[in-house]
Every structure is written in structure tokens, then in C-alpha cells.
Write a structure and sequence with these properties.
2 domains, 316 residues, elongated, three-stranded mixed beta sheet, mainly alpha
Length: 316
């Protein structure tokens, strides 16, 4: 299998361009789709008695959960857990449209927000969390698809037939020699290409640049799509089945979410290029997932010991 057989990533992160560097992005649309789907699903669960949250409060809850839980928690988690150097340029923290969100940070943010919201509105925290967890994999699915479109958080080097070559690897500091080689080759095609960033733009429209990069870029696992499948589709299927087909006390689904997500993340991290220093023999994502695994088990044990069920859920 030669490098010519691999797909070279050339997707535009913009849905359309207003100017060369401004316009709506797929990354932003992914979050909009996640919040809309979360609202529809949570409203459905509320109407059928699975959620104690009143139907007229679903929109309010999803809106604030999105802002303070997902956006704030996810962004701060990314900065603190993966890119603390961004603290030197505080304004960069607010440029969320450029990508860079932490799933672990978003989960922590949602845990804290749901605790606050549940106490304020006198709703069972575990019931609120259970139903939010059922909808969460949809957001993870859209988020991972957006990561793939952006060509970020790519996988490790491989030679599987479905491997993908990601031009963004040229932006990594440890790939400086590869980046210089790529710029030199691409300049023969377009003299205006003088930086790896310029290559990112040219690859979207210039087939000559694409052909020149094929022998240079390394084929990698499309780990974003692995995560979209496991953390999104598979996890949603499991939690939806437990929520709608099994009568479980409040807290069990939250625990199942943490346990399953942690296991899936630990597995997929073996195929994902580490984007932060290792913690011993584990990636940063695996390390944090071990804590989620323990937290999930604790939720399940606590729920089973003192079972409390949704107030409006039929007993039969």
C-alpha cells in the first residue's frame, strides 16, 4: 500500500466564506446541532415522565447548560488540561471558533452546573444528570465530526487502508523538518506558499499541492471518526436503551455514561496522536478517564443502595 492510496484531508473548516478568513464554520454548526438535538430529546424525555424537569424549563436549562457547562467548562478544561500556555495570551481563550474544547472539562462543567440548577429549582440532581447524559453523546458525535473536518486531533501513524493524511501535522513543532520540506516542494508549484499555514489554505483548492504533499505527509488513523462512532453513536444507543427500556433509579445512567465514555476514550486514545505530554505510560485523555471510570462506578453503587426513581415515571 503506497501513500498515493490514502485520502489527503483537504476539507474547508468554513461552511462558506464571507471574507478569506471570516465566515460560519462547521465547528460552530456542530455545537448548534448538538444543542438543538439535546433540546428535542430532553423535551421528549420530559413529556414521557423520564425527566423530572418540567417541559417549560427544558429550553432554559439547555441554554444555560450549553453556555456554562459545555462552552465554559469545555474551553477552560482545554486550556488547563492541554494548553496551559494559552494563559500567556488570555484573549486566545475566547477564540473558541478556532477549535480547542476538552470533553473532560465539559463534563466537569456540566456536573457543577446541573448541581447548581437542581438545587435552585428543587429537582433531583441525579435525575437531571441522567437525562442530560442521555443526550450528551449526540453532542460528542457532532463535536468529533467537526474535529475531523478541521483536520485536528488526528490519529497516530498507521498503514491501514482507510488512513488519512492530515496537512495540519506540518504545524507541529516536532515536525519542523517535514514542514520545511513541504514548503520547499509546494513553492515550486505556487511561489506564494512560504509557510505551513499557507499550505493549509492551498491544499483546499490546488490539486498540484495535494499531489506534492502525498509523499511527505504521514498516513494516520482518523481517530476523530472512531471517537464519533464509539462516544457518539454507540454510547447514545446504550444509554437510550437503558433510559427507555429499563427502569433504573436516578444516578445509574449518569454512572453508565461515565463508565462507558471512559472505557471508549481509553481504547481510542491508543489510536490518537497525544496532544499533550504523557502522564507516565498513559495519554492525558486516558489519565483523566480513569477518574471518570471511578466516578461512574460510585454513581451506580450509590444509586443502587438508595434507589429513587423519576417522579412521573409509571411503575409498570
Amino acid at each position: 500500500m503506497t501513500a498515493l492510496a490514502y485520502y489527503l484531508h483537504r476539507l474547508d473548516p468554513f461552511i462558506f466564506h464571507v471574507t478569506e478568513t471570516f465566515g460560519p464554520r462547521w465547528y460552530g454548526l456542530a455545537y448548534v446541532c448538538a444543542f438543538v438535538c439535546g433540546y428535542v430529546l430532553l423535551l421528549w424525555l420530559s413529556r414521557r415522565g423520564y425527566a423530572d424537569l418540567p417541559r417549560n424549563q427544558v429550553g432554559d436549562f439547555i441554554t444555560w447548560a450549553a453556555l456554562f457547562g459545555v462552552m465554559l467548562g469545555g474551553r477552560l478544561g482545554y486550556v488547563l488540561f492541554y494548553k496551559p500556555a494559552m494563559l500567556r495570551d488570555p484573549l486566545s481563550i475566547f477564540r473558541v471558533w478556532e477549535g480547542g474544547m476538552s470533553a473532560h472539562g465539559g463534563m466537569l462543567g456540566l456536573v457543577l452546573f446541573t448541581l447548581y440548577y437542581a438545587r435552585k429549582h428543587r429537582i433531583a440532581w441525579t435525575n437531571l444528570g441522567d437525562n442530560l447524559c442521555v443526550t450528551a453523546p449526540i453532542g460528542l458525535f457532532f463535536g468529533r465530526c467537526a474535529n475531523f473536518i478541521n483536520g485536528e486531533l488526528y490519529g497516530r501513524v498507521t498503514n491501514v487502508q482507510w488512513a488519512v493524511q492530515f496537512p495540519k501535522e506540518l504545524l507541529e513543532l516536532n515536525n519542523a523538518a517535514e514542514a520545511d520540506r513541504a514548503v520547499a516542494v509546494c513553492q515550486r508549484i505556487d511561489p506564494a506558499i512560504t509557510t505551513p499555514e499557507a499550505i493549509q489554505q492551498a491544499v483546499q483548492t490546488n490539486n498540484g499541492v495535494v499531489d506534492a504533499l502525498r509523499p511527505i505527509l504521514t498516513p494516520r488513523h482518523p481517530s476523530q471518526l472512531y471517537e464519533a462512532f464509539l462516544e457518539g453513536i454507540v454510547l447514545f444507543t446504550i444509554l437510550w436503551f437503558v433510559r427507555t427500556r429499563m427502569r433504573q433509579p436516578n444516578g445509574v445512567i449518569t454512572g453508565a455514561f461515565f463508565v462507558c465514555y471512559a472505557i471508549f476514550r481509553i481504547v481510542v486514545e491508543n489510536y490518537r496522536e497525544p496532544d499533550a505530554p504523557m502522564v507516565g505510560m498513559f495519554t492525558r485523555g486516558q489519565f483523566f478517564s480513569f477518574f471518570l471510570l471511578l466516578l461512574g462506578i460510585a454513581f451506580i453503587v450509590a444509586a443502587k443502595r438508595r434507589p429513587v426513581y423519576p417522579k412521573k415515571l409509571p411503575t409498570s
